[in-house]
Amino acid sequence: MLMQAAQTGPTEPRRAALPIPSVPAQVVMDRDFIARNQIVERYIGGRLPLKGAQDFERYCAEHPQLLDEIGLTERINCALRMLEAGGRGSPWEVRARPRWQRLPVLFGAAGVALLLAVVSLVLVGKLSARDHSIAALREQVAAQALDPAQSTRVITLIPNRVAPSPRSLVTIGGKAAEMADLKFDMSWSKYTAFRVIIDRGDQGRVAVLHNVLRDSNGILFLGINSSALGPGNYEFTIEGLNWRGETEPQAWATITIGH
């Protein structure tokens, strides 16, 4: 252990970094002081304290010929060439703004935002109007309100005895609801009791009326409020009923309801 310590020798103390000399407050700055303390290099490197930098700038203002003697212009040119070689611009050059900070881009973005705001307001208005319309239709469907009949019309119909016909025999309703007394001429049929089936064109069955009797003149009566059914064509199928309740097709008629 002692031999190893002897071979190694005493450890040299770590030298502290030399402090950068500053301009003493009692020393007047002159050419000799500037050259001896490398004031120019320290000034360009930004290593002068505030007091020293102010004294040096004041001295240069009082002795402008010093700038030529120290070659300040050549030093600045060398520094600019180094910046240019390193791909950096001059300190006084205005850096180009990013594309998103340029005025045309900002104006364009503001215009797009305004347009989107207007479109959003229009869509919100349309959606609100649609919601009100849907709510009103739902209330109307739930209530299933009937319009009061403004008039009553007696209509005599001669149904087709052979097959269903798409041709409408009469149109009821329209601008105002009316009560239609439909009189089907069934005097030629051997049956006195009938079953009447009402189908809405291309949609489905509306009603089935059982044991509808004709009167002594052979007329089958049906009264309909035109507002009770939606607009469209309605096909009436009239079937005869025997005493066993069996049916036999007798006639067909199509009417139109308008609104």
Describe it for me?
- The chain has 7 helices and 8 strands, in the order αααααααββββββββ.
- Residues 1-21 have low confidence and may be disordered.
- The protein is 36% helix and 24% strand.
- The strands form 2 sheets. The chain has a 5-stranded mixed beta sheet, with no helix packed on it. A 3-stranded mixed beta sheet has the order 1-3-6, with no helix packed on it.
- It has 259 residues and is an alpha/beta fold.
- Among the domains are: 20-85, no CATH class; 152-258, Immunoglobulin-like (Sandwich), CATH 2.60.40.
- β4 and β5 (204-213) form a beta hairpin.
Average pLDDT works out at: 78
Series of secondary-structure elements, N-terminal to C-terminal:
HHHHHHHEEEEEEEE
CATH class category of the domain at 152-258:
Mainly Beta
| Largest sheet strand order | 2-8-7-4-5
The oligomeric state of the chains shown is: single chain
- Which class do the helix and strand fractions yield? alpha/beta
Percent range of helical residues: 25-40%
CATH architecture descriptor text of the domain at 152-258: Sandwich
In total, the number of strands is 8
- In terms of per-residue confidence, which ranges show pLDDT below 50 for 5 or more consecutive residues? 1-21
What count of helical segments does DSSP give? 7
At CATH level 3, the topology of the domain at 152-258 is Immunoglobulin-like
Alpha carbon gyration radius: 54 Å
Give the amount of beta strand, in percent. 15-25%
Largest sheet: 5 strands, mixed
Distance between the termini: 119 Å
Described by the principal axes of the CA atoms, the overall outline is rod-shaped
